[in-house]
Structures are given as structure tokens and as C-alpha cells.
Amino acid sequence: MTILLPEFDICQPDGTVLASPGSAEFLADFLPTGAIQDVFASLVAQPSELCIAGCVAKMVVTDGDNSITSARVKLTGIDVFGRAVQEEISTNAAGTNTYSGTVPFYTYTATVAQGVGFTATDRISLGLAPVLGLPMMISTAGNVLVARIDAAIESPPTIALVGTNGLATWTPSLAPNGARRFRAYGYTVAL
Q: How far are the Cα atoms of 60, 96, 119, 174, 181 from residue 100, in angstroms, in the given order?
């Protein structure tokens, strides 16, 4: 069954526009010990507090002395449709860098981090990537008919399917900045 959906605002739960990805961190400046550590209690926000359609996470590794041999964050949670999702964001490279995930989470239910080779100046942070979850289930990127930033239509929008369960993301050409409005509409399908 295919249903044409109305236009959805992709915004914060109170209807305000999305903040800049750089200004929204879930976990700030965590120093791993080498062991797998439960960092769920250290999260300062849930993705649902930042975006009604869910957020894609990014792991920021700060390697002050090029000593890191590996870093990873494993996220477990719920998507915007109430289904269980999980993702691991990892690297085995030394140096300061940002690594984006692909799964839009609505809520985290468990979060663990591990880092090997971290010294006093090294950190892991978990923040918001400039990738938006879509509030509709789709079977192909073509199901999204229109994606708009303010009044401008993106043609074509950069849509990615996440797995095979209809979950999808949109990477807009302009990142959220606390002023832009993001909207999408299209066909949803029963999967």
C-alpha cells in the first residue's frame, strides 16, 4: 500500500528550527580507559530532544598527541517508528577526526564507548551529524517527492535508505543553523 503524505517539518519537538550540529553534543569530552565503558548515564540529551525525526550521531575523536590506536562508540536505541536500532561508529586510525554514523536514533537506551591509546589530552565526544532522519518509511529514495530548505527545493535531495526496514535519512545541502526550516514530503509504503 502506498500513501501520499503531507509535508513534514523536520524540527525540534516544540516546533523550533534545528540547532547547528556543532552546538549539540550528547556526550562531551569523554576520556576512555581502554575498557568498554557504559557512558549512557553521561549523555546530556536524547536525540528526540533535538529533532522529532531522529538524529544521526557523529563521533569526534580528539587525539592531542597522535597516540590513539582505536576508538568506538556503540549506540543502542529506538527509531522514530518505535523500532529497535543499533550502530557502532569506530576507527583504528590515529589523529583528530570526525566519524559520522548512518542510523537516525529517536532515543538511546544504551551507549558504550571504548578507546585504546588515549592519553590525558585525548577525548571522544558524541554529537549531531548534519544528517536528518525522515519521518516517513520509504522503499526507495524516489519516494521522497520534495525536500525543502526554507522555500528552496533541493533537486534531487540526497536521500539514503538505512537497512531494509524503510528507515531513511536526508543529507541537506545546507546544515541546520538555528534558522533554517527543513521540510519533506512524499510517498510512504507499508513494508
A: 9, 14, 23, 16, 22
- Considering the domain architecture, whether residues 143 and 173 belong to the same structural domain is answered as yes
Dmax (CA) for the chain in angstroms is 55
Rounded Cα distance, 43 and 45, in Å: 6
The structure's pTM equals: 0.87
d(CA 61, CA 37): 16
Q: Dump pLDDT digits (tens) for 87-140.
A: 999 999 999 999 999 999 999 999 999 999 999 889 999 988 889 998 888 888
- The per-residue pLDDT for range 70-79, each reduced to its tens digit, is 999 999 999 9
Number of CB atoms found within 10 A of residue 95's CB: 11
174 and 102 share a domain?
Answer: no
Q: Are 117 and 49 in contact (CB under 8 A)?
A: no
Q: What percent of the chain has pLDDT over 90?
A: 50
Last residue in a domain, options 84, 110, 130:
130
Residue ranges making up the domain that contains 28 = 23-130
Q: DSSP class of residue 15?
A: S
